[in-house]
Amino acid sequence: MVGGRIIRLLVHDVRFPTSFGGHGSDAMHTDPDYSAAYVVIETDAKDGLKGYGITFTLGKGTEVVVCAINALSHHVLNKDLGEIVRNFRGFYRQLTSDGQLRWIGPEKGVVHLATAAILNALWDLWAKQEGKPLWKLLVDMDPKQLLSCIDFRYITDALTEEEAYEILQKGSIGKKEREKQMLECGYPAYTTSCAWLGYSDQQLKQLCSEALKEGWTRFKVKVGADLEDDIRRCRLIRDLIGPEKTLMVDANQRWDVPEAVEWMLKLAEFKPLWIEEPTSPDDILGHATISKALAPLGIGVATGEQCHNRVIFKQLLQADALQFLQIDSCRLGSVNENLSVLLMAKKFQIPVCPHAGGVGLCELVQHLIVFDYISISGSLENRMCEYVDHLHEHFKYPVVIKKASYMPPKDAGYSTEMKEESVKEYQFPEGKIWQKLMTAQKN
Question: For residues 426 and 433, is the Cβ–Cβ distance under 8 A?
């Protein structure tokens, strides 16, 4: 029985100094410190279980998200978890429709990142109380219960609740077989760990060679800062991995629309499957223009990691502006909003290839993509989930990769719980690692 009155919500600013090694660096974010606003929710239930939720950040600014989480906490405290999940659509709307806080959103930016962290913690707690990993909780749900978690406001011109129900009904055919397949083989992944923009050529060669030995066949390269440098690096990696393996490139929003087309014409010789985030994430028509221009070259457009909400995804789909849709477990309003986007992608027949580049994102999004395959898409064609080999050691239930595939988590919850010692050591600014770094900088 799911329940318990929520008696405490704590939030921690946890930062890892990844900028010192160039990890996570790209054309727009040259010195990222992978970080998270980390939420812990406690109830008065006798089981003593806690819910853990994160939203991903890049260092500075995490303190702003923490403030937003505290500002939203009054919507959560003293509420009964059972009542929340029985009317999850209503609770989601309450959280995203705060009469004053929505003015600095609505459903976008800092306040939406805060919403995601809180809701991720609630989903983690719900799954733990049910004794299931989150993906299994979703797979086992009755379609009507699943849909009751989704706010369809603003997207009914693209997907109605009735259409979503029909998709889930059709998706129930063959579910058991697909679940068995996932448990045996896992979900295909690609690696971004080999080719961050701040890495030297020698580092690229070493990491690519190691990845090939481990069985990786799909590689993503960061591009966008310097064309000649991009050509050299793409050639280096294409030569290393060979002509048959999959290569993707990611500009992280660096270019104007005409520039994106011109730049990709020069990189087309390396046969990239997609160009990711070629321009501003808000420019729907710009993405459509780029998609149309690159289609004859066989290059698709991928985007979504900084897509504000389901409405922007709806318009990207309606405008034929992307060929690969990249959901994010912490940018959107948690599982609730991601469910609506997965269903829209199915209706528009666009493959979902989630973003999972930051701290904890692999742990979270693996649940969503396994559920998507089992219950919604039923297909692995042109589908893969990003994997970055950073910071998993700080999580109590880290991802498991076998043969370049995500193996479905078996522990109850959303895989969001961090190790206590990691939170203490990397909490900003009082954690040991930050005290040490700040002392070194003073000296």
Answer: yes
Q: For residue 197, which of 228, 230, 219, 164 has the smallest C-alpha distance?
A: 230
- Omega into 243 within 30° of 0, i.e. cis? no
Length of the chain: 443
d(CA 157, CA 163): 11
**156: three-class secondary structure by DSSP:** coil
- Dihedral sign for Cα 230, 263, 109, 84, please: negative
The pLDDT tens digits for 396-441 are 999 999 999 999 999 999 999 999 999 999 999 999 999 988 888 7
Provide DSSP, 287-306: HHHHHHHHGGGT-EEEE-TT
Residue 438: predicted pLDDT: 84
Whether residue 369 contacts residue 354, with contact meaning beta carbons closer than 8 Å, is answered with yes
- Of 137, 43, 121, 38, nearest to 82 by C-alpha is 43
Q: How would DSSP label each residue in 322-378?
A: -SEE---TTTSSHHHHHHHHHHHHHHHT--B-----STTHHHHHHHHHHHIIIIII-
R_g of the chain, CA atoms, integer Å = 21
3-state SS string for 213-263: HCCCCEEEEECCCCHHHHHHHHHHHHHHHCCCCEEEEECCCCCCHHHHHHH
Q: How far apart are CA 22 and CA 36, in angstroms?
A: 18
Amino acid code (one letter) for 221? V
Question: Which helix (H) or strand (E) element contains residue 52?
Answer: strand 50-57
Give catalytic residues, as residue numbers. Answer: 222, 355
Do the Cβ atoms of 364 and 120 come closer than 8 Å? Answer: yes
Q: pLDDT tier at 62 (50, 70, 90 boundaries)?
A: very high
CA atoms in the 13 A half-sphere facing the CB of 48: 0
